[in-house]
Amino acid sequence: MPRKTASNARSAPRPAAAARGVAPSSGETVELPGKGHQTRQAILDCALQMAGRIGLEGLSIGVLADRMDMSKSGVFAHFGSREELQISVIRRYHSLFEADVFYPALDQPRGLPRLHMLFDRWVQQVSREVETGCIYISGAVEFDDRPGPVRDALVLMVQTWHDALLRAVSQAVEVGHLQTNTPAQLLMFELHGLILALHHDSRLLRVHGCVELARHGYRRLIGQYATPTGMKLLQTLCGAGD
Amino acid sequence: MPRKTASNARSAPRPAAAARGVAPSSGETVELPGKGHQTRQAILDCALQMAGRIGLEGLSIGVLADRMDMSKSGVFAHFGSREELQISVIRRYHSLFEADVFYPALDQPRGLPRLHMLFDRWVQQVSREVETGCIYISGAVEFDDRPGPVRDALVLMVQTWHDALLRAVSQAVEVGHLQTNTPAQLLMFELHGLILALHHDSRLLRVHGCVELARHGYRRLIGQYATPTGMKLLQTLCGAGD
DNA sequence: TCAGAAATAGTACGACCGTTCGATTTTTGA
DNA sequence: TCAAAAATCGAACGGTCGTACTATTTCTGA
C-alpha cells in the first residue's frame, strides 16, 4: 500500500466543505460553505437517529446511504472514514445537547433555579423514548473498553458536561442555596446515577413512572443538602407534594 | 432453500450435549453429558470475557474460534446460531452473578446485614476493571431498542435480580431496620443508579475513588430511611466515619 | 472391542462491510 | 456564461461475518 496512504491522507480531511463558517456576511442562517454543508448536516441528523437506536458501533455507511437516498461513496466522501463519522455524530449530539439542556438553563439565576432546570431538561432529554437515545450513555458503554479517537472525543464531551454541572452545584453552594459542606462530587455522582437509572428503566425495563422516580430522587437528594433558603426555593420549583 | 429449513431446525437445538444433567449418579462435579459440555463451558467463559469488553453485539464466532484454537464450525455447532450463543452468555453471566453476589448474601440475617452484603458485592462485581465488564449493563444499552429473544432473556435476568433486591429491601422494613414508610421502589432506583454511575465513572472516565463515592452514596441513602436500630447496624456494617 | 454417536474440522456460499478510484453531475463565482 | 471546483455516483476490492453441508476424528457404552 504505497500510494494508498497518500491518497487516504488527502481524502480524509478534505471532503466536502469541512470548515465551519461562523461569520457569513449576510446573516447567520445562510451557510457559508454551500450545499455540501447542508447535506452533511442532513446525513448527521439521520446518523444521529440511527446511532440512538443501534449504537455508534451499529452505524453502517451503507444503511445510512440507503436512508438518505444517496450512494455509499457519496455519504462516505463527507467524512473520509467511519471513525470520523462516529466522531461527527458525537459532536452533533453534543451541540444539540447544549442547545436543549445547557444554554436554556443559563437564563435562570445561579443556584438552585439553574441547577433545577439543568436536571429537569436532562431528564427530559434522556426519557424521550420515541426519539434518539442518549449517545453519551450508549457511547460510554460501547467505548469504555475501546481506546481510540472516538473514545477520546466522547470522554471530552461527557467531561465537559459534567464539569458544567459541577459548576452549577458549586454556584448553588456559593449563593447559599446548598450547605457549605455539601460534597459536590458525591452529589454529582448521585444525580448522574438517577439519570442513568432513568435511562435503564425507561428503555430496557419499560418501567412506568420512572421519570417521577428520578424527580423524587432529585428532590430528596437536594433536600438533604439544602439550606433553609434552598428548601423554600426547592418547594417552589418542584411544586406541591413530598 | 427447500431442505435448508428442515436442516436448520434440526441443527439449532440439537448440537452437542444440550441437556443439563442435574443428578448424575456418581457426584455433582462429574458432568453427565461428557466432553461436549466441558468445551461448551470453556467457550462460554471465553465468550463472556469477550462480551464484557466489546459487548454482546461485538461477539464474533470467528474470533471466538481463534481464541479457543478451534474451527469456526466447531464452535458454531455448540450453539446453532449466534443468537443462541448470546443468550447462553447472558445465562452464564447470570449464574456467575448469582454465585458471586446473591447466594453469599443469603447467609446473612435478613434486613440490613443481607442488604448490605448484596450491595457491597454488587459494587465489587461492577468495579472489577481488569476483568469482565457487567453484561447486564452493557447488554441493557445494546438491546434496549432491539426486540428479540436476546433482549427477552436479558430482561428476564435483570428483572429477576431486581426483584431479589427489592425483596431484601422489603425484609429490611419488616425486621425493623428501615422505616415502615420507606419507598422501596425509589430506594431500589437510587441504589441501581449508584451502581450505574459507578460503572460509568470507573470504566469511561476512570475516576479515582468512585467506589468510595458509591459506598458513601449507599450509606447516606440507607441512613435516611433507617430506624434507630437500623442506624446502629449501618454504622457497624460500614465501619467508622461518615 | 467395536459399532454407533458425538464432537470437531474443512470448505464453501452469499451478504454486508469500509474503502478506493475514476467518471460524472452539480454547484459556484468571476 | 463558462470554466474551475465541489459533490455525487458506480463499480470494484479485500475482508469478515454467520451459516450450511460434508467429511473426519474422537469419544462412549454395551
Summary of the model, kept short:
2 copies of one chain form a homodimer. Helices cover 69% and strands 0% of the residues of chain A.
List the helices and strands and how they pair.
Two copies of one chain form a homodimer.
Chain A: H1 3-11, H2 35-54, H3 61-68, H4 72-77, H5 82-105, H6 112-127, H7 135-143, H8 149-174, H9 184-205, H10 210-225, H11 228-238
Helix pairs in contact in A: 2-3, 2-5, 5-6, 5-8, 6-8, 6-9, 6-10, 7-8, 8-9, 9-10
Chain A binds a DNA duplex (30 and 30 nucleotides) through residues 4, 7-8, 11, 15-17, 34-36, 39, 60-63, 70-78, 80-82.
Describe this structure in words.
With 242 residues, chain A is mainly α. Chain A is built from eleven helices and no strands. In chain A, helix 6 packs parallel to helix 9 (184-205). The longest helix of chain A has 26 residues, at 149-174. The first copy, chain A, is elongated. Chain A starts with a helix and ends with a helix. At the A-B interface, helix 2, helix 7, helix 8, helix 9 and helix 10 of A face helix 7, helix 8, helix 9 and helix 10 of B.
